[in-house]
Fold each of these.
Amino acid sequence: MLMPAAVLVFIVLGAIAVDFAVAFLGEREVSNAAAAAANDAAGAALDQTRFYADGALRLDPVRAASVGRSSVRAAGLDHLGDVDVRVAVDRDAPVVTVTVSARVGYVFAKALPGGPDGVTVEASATATAEEQD
Amino acid sequence: MRLSEERGAVGGFEVLPFGFLVFVAGTLLLTNAWAVVDGKVAVTAAAREAARAYVESPGPAGTALEQATVAARGAIQGHGRDPARMRLAPVGPLAFRRCARVTFEVTYEVATINVPWLGSLGGGVVGTSARHSEVVDPYRSDVPLGWDGGVRCDA
C-alpha cells in the first residue's frame, strides 16, 4: 500500500505546485495590468484646467478612473473571474493608485474532494505625474 | 518458521508496475501543465515588453514596431524559449501618436508530451497568449499629435 500512497502524495504535491504557480501567474498578470493602468492614468488624466489656471499638476479623478478601467479592460484579463478595478487619486498630489483584483481558477485542486476552486489575487500600483524640463 | 507464512511477503507486488505507470503518467501530466504555465509567464513578459518598447520608442511608427518586436523576442529568449515560435500582433489600430492606446498580443505554441491513457494535450501543441496595453505618453516631445492636431486619449 505504501507505493501507491507515495505515488498519490507525489502527484498531489506536484498538482499543488502547479496550482500555486497558476495563482502566482494570475497575480503577475493583475500586477502588470495595475502598473500599466496607473502609468496610463498618470499621463492621460492630467487636469488641464487646473494646470493652466495655477500651474499645479493634479489629476482628474473621473478621467483617471475612466483611463484606468479602460487600460485594465484592454489588458486581456478575460480568462480571470470577478475582475475589479479601483482607482484612487490623491487630492493634494498628482498621484494615482490603481488596485486590480481577480479570481484565479485552480487547475488540479478542484479535482480533489473539498479542494478550493480558485483564489482571489490582488495587486496595486502607484504612479506619479512629474513635470520635466 | 514455516514456509507457508512467507507467502504474503510478496503480496501486492503486482501493483508496483501499475503504481509506477500512474507515477509516470502523473509526472508527465504535471510536466505538461508546468510547460504551459511557464509558456504563459514568457508570453506575459513578452507582451509587456513589446507594449513598453512601443510607447517608449522615439519613433517613427515603423521603428517603434521594430523595437517592440525585438523586445518581445528578447523576453521570450530570456525565458529560454524559441522566439521563432512566437507571434506578435497588435490588437486594434496601431497608431504612433500621443495618447494612442497600444495593445499587443503575444502567442506562443508550447509543445506537450504524450501522456499514457490521456494522449497528448491539445494535439501535441498548446497555444498560450497574453496581452498588454499602454497609452503613448500624451505630453511627450517629438511624438506626433492626433489627426486633428490635438491630444485626445483613447480611453
Note: Residues 15-135 of chain B form one domain.
Amino acid sequence: MTRQTFVSLAAGAAATAVLAGGSTAARAQEPRVVVITARRFEFVPNQITLVEGETVKLQLRSEDVTHGLFIRPLGIDQDIAPGRTTEITLTPRQPGSYRAICDHFCGAGHGAMKMTILVVDPPVAGGGGASAR
Amino acid sequence: MSRELDRRRFLRIAGTGLGAGALYTVWPTLGRFAEAGELARRLGKETGEAPTPFTFVQLSDAHVGFDGPVGTRAFEKAVDIINGLPTTPDLVLFTGDLTHDTEKAGEHASRMTRFQEISARLRVAKVHHVAGEHDAGLDGGDLYRSVFGPTFYSFDHRGVHFVALDNVSRARPEVGAEQRAWLMKDLARFDKTTPIVVFTHRPLFDLRPDWEWFTSDGDEVMTILAPYENVTVLYGHIHREDHHALGRARHHAARSLCFAFPDPETTEDKKAIPFDKGEPFKGLGLRLVDRHPGAPGAAALQVRDVELAMSEYSGTEGFNQILRPATF
C-alpha cells in the first residue's frame, strides 16, 4: 500500500455491513460504488474515472474464471474469483492515469487484459470541471 | 590478501549472449591466488564437486505452438548454433514458456512433445527447465510436471549451485511461502561466497509491473539470497535482453525464440515488435558484446564475486550477424 492511497479489502456482505454501520449518518457517507466486471480477456468498463480524495467502493466480479486486478501505484493486488463479489474500498490521493492489469493468468489473451483508472482533481467550487494532471 | 577476497575472485562467469539465448563460461582462477587449492576444496565440499571450467547456455520463451510467423524456426536455429559451438556447453537452462498455452484437449501435451523433439537435438549433457505461465499457469503446473518434472529444484555442477524457481504455477506472479521456505533450507548448507545461479521465468524485481514484468514476492526471495555474495539470476518472460545489478545480485534476461517485445522505456503499450518478412529474426538474432573494463556500460556487468562479462551477437539484423559481430 502506498502513502498516496488508502485501500481496504473485504469480501461481500460483511464489509458492506461494517461500512454502512446501519445509521443514517453512516449511510449518508457511504462511498460511491463502481462495478467492474472481469471476463476473458477484458474488464468492463475498461476505464473508470475517480476523484482525488473521494472514497469509492470497487465491486469486482468475474463472469468466468479467476482473474486479478493489479495496480501497483494504488496498492491494489486482488484476485477476482467467479461466483462472488469482491470489494475494495479506495481513496486515491494522487491524480493521474493508472493502468490496471489482470495478474492471474487466465488464458491466451491474458496479456492484453487491462483497463485504465483515471484519477482527476476534485472540482473547484464555482470553477470548471475536474481534470487529471 | 584475505581469504574472503580471494574467494570473491576465485570463480568467474563470462556470459556470451546468443541473442536467442546466452552462453556462459565459468572458470576458476586456479593458480592466481596462493589459497586457490584450499578454496577449491572448500567449494567442492559444499557443492559435492570441485570447481572446474565449464560453459552453459540459457534459452527462453520458445512458445512452441504459438501461431506466429517464426514458428519453431528460431528455436531450431538456436539448437543448431549451440551444437556448432566450438566448446560444447555442459548445460542448457531453459527459462520458461517452452510452449504456448491452449485449452484444446490434448493439444498442450502435443506442444510439449514437440518441444522435447526439438530440444532432444541438443548435443549437450543436460537440459534443465523451469516453467513459464504459458506452460503452467492454467492448470497449476500439473501437465508440466508430468512431462518435465518438478517446477522447482536445485542441483550442483562443478562448484556452482543452481536453483530453479517457479514463479508461474500459482497463476499469479509469485513464488509463494512454501517455495521460499524450501529455498532457505536449500541454501542453508552453503557458505556465503558459494556461486549461486538462480534461473526462473519472471523477473524477481519490479522491471515493469504494469506489463506484468515482476514477481510479487520477488523482494522476499532476494532477501533470502541477499547474504550470498555470488548470485546471478537468469530469467526470460520479457522477450528481450536486459541486465540489472541490484544489490550484490546480477539479473539477466535472455531473448525470446518466438517474438520480441519493445524497450519498456520507450513505449507505454506492451505490444510485440511487428514481424518483418525481410528480417524474420529481428530481435531474436545473435549479438556479440565484449566486455571492456572501463568502457561505458561495462561497469554494470562487473561483479566482485561472480564476474559476469556479456558477449552477444547483434540481433538487429538476424542470425547471419553471427559472423559480423558488433562490439560496443
Note: Confidence is low (pLDDT under 50) at residues 1-6, 9-22 of chain A.
